Amino acid sequence: MPFLGQDWRSPGWRWVKTEDGWKRCEPFSPALEDGNNQLNDISHTVIITGDDENEEVYNTEDCEFAAKKRKKDHFRNNTDSQCFYREKWIYVHKESTKERHGYCTLGEAFNRLDFSSAIQDIRRFNYVVKLLQLIAKSQLTSLSGAAQKNYFNILDKIVQKVMEDQYNPRLIKDLLQDLSSTLCILIRGVGKSVLVGNINIWICRLETILLWQQQLKNLQMNKQVNNGLTLSDLPLHMLNNILYRFSDGWDIITLGQVTPTLYMLSEDRQLWKKLCQYHFAEKQFCRHLIPSEKGHIDWKLMYFALQKYYPIKEQYGDTLHFCRHCSILFWKDTGHPCTASDPNTCLMPVSPQHFIDLFKF
């Protein structure tokens, strides 16, 4: 008698619990095709330039066969497509043992640690964006195909969040600029062999990045109508204390553009001197002294000059943590199955660069 049902040896469907009840977790859904008409408004011709200023044009005539596939792949990369994992942590092992075979990759960790939900937390937003920027610069080709899809899904969510909340668009612009530069080099300069998937998929992704850059360029900041106390109503010493809390020079400059009073406070030499002393060692800024016209040290110019030579200190509201006892990477609020007698003594915060370095072999 033939077996007409599903093979009993298969793992079965994956289910996830939601507010509306249990739903089957599917890798793709027909609903992905909603809201993707923006791509039709841009041209399917992309000009990729290199250092030699020669241009290579990819147009619809060169990839007529892949036109439908490109659109289908774009739909599949919509942010509604998301894999769910029960555990929000991952065991980091770099070699095979009797208990575990193989090793953990960057793409696997990127898929398992739920970065899609992390960007909704304002404490983790800058951390995730910085991590995506580091991946875009040097580790994009090391991601698996599934991890690359997840990468662009998360990137799409970040752009949409910035468009809605208008939160830190400068950071996202830098990320998209680095990502577009990397893709241009990979597609044209390095070759097609280093990219996972059809070349037309990557051209389509590059077009989407150009569209995002245009949207952010046209972003208009909404003026909030508030009849209560505003920033300008605060006394000078409180405004000065706010400026001294910033660790990013560009944030100081941006706030100084709000009112003439804030501009005056943002140009304070002592403020920029404290910022240089916080980020850089004395030996570092002694090598790059920039005197002003009056003979004093221009600490503001010093800060931006030193940025080109030395990395600045990074500050994040929340980061990933690594347990040295269990070799597990996780978000601190979700926890992990630790067997140590005092788990807090084994925890170590993981910076975005440290996250990348954990998976270098």
UniProtKB/TrEMBL annotation:
Gene Ontology cellular-component annotations: cytoplasm; nucleus; SCF ubiquitin ligase complex
Keywords (alphabetical) are: Nucleus, Ubl conjugation pathway
* Location(s) in or outside the cell: Nucleus
Q: Which GO terms describe its biological process?
A: protein ubiquitination
Q: Which pathway, metabolic or otherwise, does it act in? A: Protein modification; protein ubiquitination
Q: Which SUPFAM superfamilies would you find in this protein's record? A: F-box domain
- Domain of life, per UniProt, equals Eukaryota
Principal location: nucleus
Stored PANTHER family = F-BOX ONLY PROTEIN 25, LD30288P
Function field: Substrate-recognition component of the SCF (SKP1-CUL1-F-box protein)-type E3 ubiquitin ligase complex. May play a role in accumulation of expanded polyglutamine (polyQ) protein huntingtin (HTT).
**Protein name per Swiss-Prot or TrEMBL:** F-box only protein 25
Q: Which organism is it from?
A: Sylvietta virens (Green crombec)
Q: What taxonomic classification does the UniProt entry list for its organism?
A: Eukaryota, Metazoa, Chordata, Craniata, Vertebrata
